[in-house]
Amino acid sequence: MSSSNQATITSKPNLKWRVVDIAVASVIGVVSTFVYWAAALLYGPIGSPLDALIPGLGGLMNGLWLFAGPLAAVIVRKPGAATYAEVVAGVLESLLGNSWGGMETFLIALVQGLCAEVVFLCVAYKVWNIVTVTLSGVVSAVGCWAYTFFTHLQGFNITGAYGIWYLVATVISGALVAGVLMWYLYIAIAKTGAIDKFASGRQVRAAGK
Fold first, then answer.
1. The whole model's pTM is what?
2. 174, 138 contact by CB (below 8 A)
3. Cα–Cα distance between 117 and 72 in angstroms, integer?
4. pLDDT tens digits, residue range 71-91?
5. Where are the alpha helices (DSSP H) in 54-156?
C-alpha cells in the first residue's frame, strides 16, 4: 500500500504537547490566515454568482475556511491541535480585516475547530488516514453550516431548498478541500522531510523507502 493511502494506527499515541507541536500548529494557523482572508475577499465575487446559479451553492467556498484544523491534526496528532490551528487562523484573519468582525470570526473558527477535533477524539487519536481526515473536514463543514444558519440565516428554512443545498455544498467542500486535499498536502510535506520531528512525518518517509 502506498504511503498516500496508508492507514496509520498508533497503539499508544503520545498526547503530551511539546514546544515543536505548538510551533508547527501555530505556523499552520498563520499560513492558513492568508488563505482565509483571501477567501473572505473572494466570497462576494465567487459565492454570490454560485448562489445565483443554485441558491446555497455558495457553500462550495466554505472549505477554504475549514482546512487548518484537519491539517494541523494529522501532522501534530495531539488533542486540541485542530481547534488551536483553526482558532489562530480565524483570529488573525479578523485582525487583517473581514466583513464578520473579531468575535464572530473567533466563534465560528472555534466551532469549526472543535468539530474537526471530534473525529480524531472518537478514534482516541490512534487512526490517521485519508478517511479520518476527510471525515474531520466533513464534520467541521456541518459545524460551519449549523453555526451559519443559527446565527445569520434564521430567515431561511433550514430544511428548505436553500438549507439543503447549502449543507450539501459545504459538506462537499469540507470533504474535498479540508479533507482529501489536506491529506495529500500532508503527504507531500512529509516527503520533503520538513516534519521529521513528528511521527507523522517519519512514518511517511519510512513507507517511501
1. 0.89
2. yes
3. 10
4. 999 999 999 999 999 999 988
5. 68-76, 81-96, 102-122, 130-152
